[in-house]
Amino acid sequence: MEDERDNPQELLRTSGAAAKTGLSVSTLNKLRCSGGGPAFLKLGRAVRYKPVDLKDWLDSRRVMSTSEIVIDRLAGNRSVRHD
């Protein structure tokens, strides 16, 4: 069975990644420039996202309360992790 992490046909364009994450294309573009967004591949001029990277990024943004976000931002961290 082929590992889904190595399937190049599963690479998503920014519009597909936006649909999968519920974010706008503009937000993903900004996150790519400023950091803090999901990992992406730069293939020449093309930007592609692996579905597994989107899932990992979304999972890393999971919090149990809004106070976790405030505390993390006060500490100067851009991403929020709840393990």
Short synopsis of the structure:
With 83 residues, this protein is mostly helical.
Structure, explained:
- The protein is 45% helix and 7% strand.
- It has helices at 14-21, 25-34, 51-60, 66-74; strands spanning 41-43, 46-48.
- The chain is mostly helical and 83 residues long.
- The protein starts with 13 loop residues before the first helix and ends in a 9-residue tail after the last helix.
- The model has no long low-confidence stretch (mean pLDDT 83).
- Strands 1-2 form a two-stranded antiparallel sheet.
- The protein has a single domain (10-74), classed as Multidrug-efflux Transporter Regulator, Chain: A, Domain 2.
- The protein has four helices and two strands, in the order H-H-E-E-H-H.
- Helix 1 (14-21) crosses helix 2.
Q: Indicate the structural class.
A: mainly alpha
Low-confidence stretches: none
Number of domains: 1
Would you state the CATH class?
A: Mainly Alpha
Q: What is the arithmetic mean of pLDDT?
A: 83
Shape: globular
Number of strands: 2
Count of runs of 4 or more consecutive helical residues: 4
What is the ordering of alpha helices and beta strands?
HHEEHH
Helix content range: 40-55%
